[in-house]
Amino acid sequence: MKNQSVSRGLTDPQKFEFDRKVRSAGLWGRGYGRKQKDNRPEITMSFRITGQPPAPFRRFYGMSDAELNARNVRRHIADRLSGFPDRIELRDAKPGETVLFLNHMHQPEQTSCRSSHAIFVRKGAEAQYDEINIIPDSLRIRLVALRTFDIGHDMIEAEIAESTQLKFLIKQFFDRPETAYLHARYATHGRYAVRIDRVQEEQP
After folding, report:
1. b or e along 121-157 (b: 16 or more beta carbons within 10 Å of the residue's beta carbon)?
2. Which of 10, 13, 28, 145 has the smallest number of CB atoms closer than 10 Å to its CB?
3. What share of the chain is helix, strand, coil (3-state, %, to 5)?
4. Do β-strands 98-107 and 181-186 pair in parallel, antiparallel, or remain unpaired?
């Protein structure tokens, strides 16, 4: 298994620390720290990250500044490489590209966690990001706040992570059966980034 191959490459003190973290995270015996005892297919927990669908934002692409302002949308021209993260393609707008700054309801459910916040959408963005087990560039270069939600859309837990910790933390959260999905936010400004869902795959 993947984690076992990692631990085999560690020295004894390092492996002890690795096992300690796995145990403290409650993952020991859940596919970590043990081998499959029979010939049943091994279930590997994967995750899926999706950007926003472009359809709700297309109406803004051709609007004038006056029309946008009337709808509380602001037009900006990206003037640096890593300051305008688009929520559809999950990449930063390149200098010179046009982005729209608007309020988006990212948690529309009727709970105490109902929430909206300002996001950037690149004008003309159409290629919705949709990947399994791949961290997009817009998350990889930033400090990220992960929030876990249950099936009733109430928040269970939250954690701030460096990009190097994201995959482990995502899989750790999804190992808990009460977790239905995750939201990721860019920690510095607190703005919504993406939704992350659980994907189960059978390994032969």
Report:
1. bbbebeeebeeeeebbbbbeebebbbbbbeeebeeee
2. 13
3. 25, 35, 40
4. unpaired
Separation between Cα atoms, residue 10 and residue 183, nearest integer Å: 32
Residue 29, amino acid:
G
3-state SS assignment for residue 126: coil
According to DSSP, the β-strands at 42-50 and 191-203 are: antiparallel
- Tens-digit pLDDT profile for the chain (204 aa)? 444 433 333 445 544 454 444 444 444 433 343 344 444 444 467 999 999 999 999 999 999 999 999 999 999 999 998 899 999 999 999 999 999 999 886 676 667 666 667 899 999 999 999 999 999 999 999 999 999 988 888 888 889 988 888 999 999 999 999 999 999 999 888 788 999 999 876 555
Question: What is the model's pTM?
Answer: 0.71
